[in-house]
Design a protein that fits this description.
transmembrane helix, 8-stranded mixed beta sheet, Agglutinin, subunit A, 838 residues, alpha+beta, Prot_kinase_dom, 24% helix
């Protein structure tokens, strides 16, 4: 009996200490309950998990902290948004792999405070899950046998601390976006107003955002560090930057894991690397991201450069001048800088090197990681839209290629940075100072060369000026003698008015157009005979003509009865005269005589895109290579309108009938009657008169009258899907569903059979991956919300690269009017359909 009593006592003692023994381990299983006061400790006793109270707060949170560091340094928090008001918190792992934090509620109830929601992504067949605190500080859920990787891990959900081994960036397959979100304050671990994240538009770079506004940028990664961040190479850390079609992330590792080192974002949004010093028992800052006036994103505006050691801090890059001198002198730099001398690509141009600067924002960049700097320079020279280029990786003499298009943003002087080569007019490229490595005595000969070159350039400039004056005098002389075909005084005043209006809006840029008399046009079109009529639109007809010199032209004749057409005629004359691009139709001149108003274009022998893709016989003549060439050309043309042209233009009527095809099937965007010009600071506009063509109009424009660049992106997406399928969006029908073309394409994409959208005759000869990628891009362009659609610069990059793409959201599904369309024949892209639902 006494023996039994002793055994009972021993059993009770063992039972009482068993929970404490279990909680000193680094794992927890579904049959265990983890209560407030218990802790898990990593195998190396570096990290500890448990419930804690931050600072002066009275609330309890589940978190991970350094076990041997005092004061407590918390590196991860579970229930950031749902604090526990007392010590009733419990933590457990469920049989389905989910982690769950609960707390006591009223009337002895239990409430769920936080869950990992692992069950949403884990099969119900998960057996015996185990939660474990690793020596890296990562809390993971895995199968009990250790196979199959992690079901869930805290490293995927960082708070304010970036630990060694943690990935910062995006999983392009699952969509996992690992962002830093600092605490609101030292007493409140809930997410504050700052967030740091990796942006994968263009070449990846790191951004910091306050609320909904981006405030700072670091990057791109240059092989050593994020461009613009301090480069403190040392033997304590190793760095890794991974960028492939599956994921983009930065990660660092500690050479000596026993010496804690972290990257931390404080509640004020500052980045710091902190090292723990055992001798003094304190965290010491090893470096912090540069915090000064120039840290603000694009503080000096487009093409401006910030130098924190100068006063004022902002200046224009060499070769540029302030866009608004009055604002600039008042230290209002947001309008930025413009070129001193406009480019005349590819003539009289070169590249100037800017050293030790932070590279510009790469969201509008193109990249190739295998090219040399020489190949990169050649690629930029060949593309007149290319503004600048640089190496991606600065190691081993440099490698990779980054190209920028349009204005350059967020440039600053930074030590230990890299070189940027900017396209400039030759007159703005100054001769560089002597190389410090040149031999003694060589400066004298170099000075002689400089003087000789300067004198030569001056003579060349004088000759050019004299020739220009002679040509201008000849032009004025020709205008004095009035021929029977010369425009009347009223006509000259009309054209002069248009020129004055343009000059007010665009820095006195001249419009150089030929004037065609009514007699000339009438003769070339056989007096506007029906045999010469190519088609008819809402504002008039289009005729094919042949001039006396044999040139073929297309004549857009404004209907005398069309009151709306006058404004569109003036608008088209005003805008397209200033545009020059291989994927835009060329305006040759105009005629405005009596009641006649006409625009004269180059003639396109293959007429328009709709003639080919919507005709069963002609459609078979377009193989996949040709169709992709057309898609890519249209994208380039729209990019020019939005970003690279002298004006920022939204077309508003992109459709298959407004895409003309030349002899070589090169696409030419036409019909700018409905186009709108935007100023640099404008992103969108509203109208009470909605114009355009059904089937190509985005929802925000059709329903609210709001249009922007993203309106053209939507229309382009419709065009892409029409070109691939050979079907019209409007009036589309399918035997299996009643969707429009966009909805049908999206359903096929969701079901993994996107290739079924392709015209049947091309399926055997196409490159399947390119077709599916093009459909994917088209669906990204027709997403319902404008903010979700990519910019045209991003679209062009998507076509030019093979990187992973974001998943498209459901497109704008309209209840389509399936009645047959009116008989509209597209003619040199001048159909003029107007929709006025209000």
């Amino acid at each position: 009996m006494e023996a039994l009593h002793k055994f009972s006592v021993l059993f009770c003692v063992l039972f009482s200490i068993l929970p404490t023994y279990l909680m000193q381990q680094d794992t927890i299983t579904p049959d265990q309950i983890f209560r407030d006061g218990d802790t898990l400790v990593s195998a190396d006793e570096m990290y500890e998990l448990g419930f804690f109270t931050p600072g002066a707060s009275r609330y309890r949170y589940l978190g991970i902290w350094y076990k041997t560091v005092s004061p407590q340094r918390v590196v991860w928090v579970a229930n950031r948004n749902t604090p526990i008001q007392d010590s009733s918190g419990e933590f457990r792992v469920l049989t389905n792999g989910s982690l769950l934090v609960t707390a006591g509620g009223v009337n002895n109830t239990t409430i769920n405070v936080w869950s990992s929601n692992t069950s949403l992504v884990v099969s119900s067949a998960t057996i015996n899950p185990v939660a474990q605190l690793l020596s890296s500080g990562n809390m993971v859920v895995r199968g009990s046998n250790g196979d199959g990787g992690y079901i869930w891990q805290s490293f995927d959900y960082p708070t304010d601390t970036f630990l060694a081994g943690m990935k910062f960036g995006k999983d392009l397959v699952s969509g996992m976006d690992r962002r830093w979100r600092p605490w609101k304050s030292a007493d409140d671990p809930s997410p504050g107003e700052y967030v740091a994240f990796m942006d994968t538009n263009g070449f990846p770079q790191l951004f910091e955002q306050k609320g909904s506004v981006r405030i700072a940028r670091y990057g791109p990664w240059n092989g050593v560090t994020f461009n613009g961040m301090p480069n403190h190479a040392n033997s304590v850390l190793t760095h890794e930057f991974v960028f492939d079609d599956k994921e983009v992330y930065y990660r660092y590792e500690l050479v000596n894991s026993s010496a804690p080192s972290i990257v931390y974002v404080n509640p004020e949004g500052s980045f710091l690397r902190l090292n723990w010093v055992n001798r003094t028992q304190e965290w010491l800052p090893y470096w912090n991201a540069i915090i000064d006036m120039c840290s603000r994103l694009s503080v000096c505006g487009p093409n401006g450069r910030c130098n924190p050691n100068s006063s004022p801090a902002c200046s224009c890059m060499e070769g540029y001048v302030p866009q608004n001198p009055d604002e600039w002198s008042a230290s209002e730099w947001s309008s930025g800088c413009r070129r001193r001398t406009p480019l005349d690509c590819p003539n009289a141009e070169g590249f100037r090197v800017f050293k030790n600067i932070k590279l510009p924002d790469t969201r509008r960049s193109w990249y190739n990681r295998n090219m040399t700097l020489g190949e990169c320079a050649t690629a930029c020279k060949r593309n007149c839209s290319c503004t600048a280029y640089a190496n991606i990786d600065i190691r081993r003499g440099g490698s990779g290629c980054l190209l920028w298009y349009g204005d350059l943003f967020d440039i600053r002087n930074v030590d230990e940075s890299q070189d940027l080569y900017v396209r400039m007019a030759q007159s703005d490229i100054t001769i560089l100072p002597p190389d410090s490595n040149s031999k003694p005595g060589s400066n004298k000969s170099r000075k002689i060369v400089i003087v000789a070159v300067s004198i030569s350039c001056s003579l060349i400039v004088m000759v050019i000026l004299i020739l220009a004056m002679v040509c201008a005098r000849k032009k004025r002389t020709r205008c004095v003698v009035k021929s029977p075909d010369e425009p009347t005084i009223d006509q000259k005043e009309y054209y002069s008015m248009e020129r004055r209006h343009d000059e007010e809006e665009d820095d006195n840029d001249d419009i150089e157009l030929s004037y065609f008399s009514l007699n000339q046009i009438s003769k070339s079109t056989d007096d506007f005979s029906n045999d010469k009529k190519l088609g008819e639109g809402g504002f008039g007809a289009v005729y094919m003509g042949v001039l006396d010199d044999g040139r073929e032209i297309a004549v857009k004749r404004l209907s005398k009865t069309s009151r709306q057409g006058v404004n569109e005629f003036k608008n088209e004359l005003k805008l397209i005269a200033k545009l020059q691009h291989r994927n835009l139709v060329k305006l040759l001149g105009y005629c405005n005589e009596g009641e006649e108003s006409m625009l004269i274009y180059e003639y396109m022998p293959n007429k328009s895109l709709d003639v080919f893709i919507f005709d069963k016989i002609k459609s078979s003549t377009l193989d996949w290579t040709c169709r992709f060439h057309i898609i890519h050309g249209i994208a380039r043309g729209i990019l020019y309108l939005h970003q690279d042209s002298p004006l920022k233009i939204v077309h508003r009527d992109l459709k298959a009938s407004n895409i003309l095809l030349d002899d070589d099937m090169n696409p030419k965007i036409s019909d700018f009657g409905l186009a709108r010009m935007f100023r640099d600071h404008e992103n969108e506009a509203n109208t009470n008169r909605v114009v355009g063509t059904l089937g190509y109009i985005p929802p925000e424009y059709a329903l609210e009258g709001t249009f922007s660049e993203k309106s053209d992106v939507y229309s382009f997406g419709v065009l892409v899907l029409e070109i691939i399928s050979g079907k019209k969006n409007r009036g589309f029908s399918h035997e299996k569903d009643s969707d429009n073309l966009l909805a049908h394409a999206w359903r096929l994409f969701e079901e993994g059979v996107a290739l079924e959208l392709l015209s049947a005759h091309m399926r055997d000869s196409c490159v399947e991956s390119k077709v599916v990628r093009s459909i994917h891009i088209g669906l990204l362009c027709v997403q319902h919300h404008a903010k979700d659609r990519p910019t045209m610069s991003s679209v062009v990059l998507m076509f030019d690269q093979d990187g992973a793409l974001p998943l498209p959201k459901q497109p704008a599904f309209f209840a389509q009017d399936t009645r047959p369309e009116a008989n509209q024949v597209s003619v040199n892209g001048v159909t003029m359909t107007i929709l006025e639902p209000r």
